[in-house]
Amino acid sequence: MDVTPIIIKVFGYIIEALLVFSIILDVGYAIYDIYLMRMDGLEALSYSLVENAFFALVLLELYLGAHDFVVRSPSGLRHVVEAGLSYIIREIIVDISTGIKDIFSLSALAIVIVSLAVSLYFLSSTEKRRGESGSG
């Protein structure tokens, strides 16, 4: 009897639970951050809200990837790549909004975005080919 699928499912559910807990903590921190930033002005408050919202979005993408991995196996890799894209784009927005400190780090982030986008393209085209061959 192969217990590997059972172990993968158990760890997948543990990771899902940790991600849900992280999302709850992020929402709680966002509320606390709003309370702290209320006196710093609208600009600081809006930057904080955008940063927290993007981080929550990244956590949700990771949760979807973990859930798809547990339910449908490795097709969840697409969500992990999407989460990576969301995270890198969030970092660029934060860097731009706080003032670009280093053009080289921004260029490196752009290279990572292109790499992840190409990976996402190939994952999507592979999924389409599998869907076409499975339905025919």
Query: How many domains, as an integer?
Result: 1
Portion of residues in beta strands equals under 5%
The gyration radius over C-alpha positions equals 19 Å
Report on the biggest sheet. none
Order of helices and strands: HHHH
Instruction: Name the assembly state.
Output: single chain
- Stretches with pLDDT under 50, minimum 5 residues: none
In which range does the helix fraction lie? over 70%
Total strands: the figure is 0
The end-to-end distance, rounded to whole angstroms, is 33 Å
Query: How many helical elements?
Result: 4
Topology (SSEs and partners):
Layout: H1 4-37, H2 42-72, H3 77-98, H4 103-135
Task: Tell me about this structure.
This protein has 136 residues and is mainly α. The protein has one domain (4-135). It contains four helices and no strands. It has helices at 4-37, 42-72, 77-98, 103-135. Helix 2 (42-72) runs antiparallel to helix 3 (77-98) and helix 3 (77-98) runs antiparallel to helix 4 (103-135). It is flat, with a radius of gyration of 19 Å. The protein starts with a helix and ends with a helix.
Q: Nutshell version of this structure?
A:
The chain is an all-alpha fold and 136 residues long.
Question: Keyphrases for this structure?
Answer:
mainly alpha; 136 residues
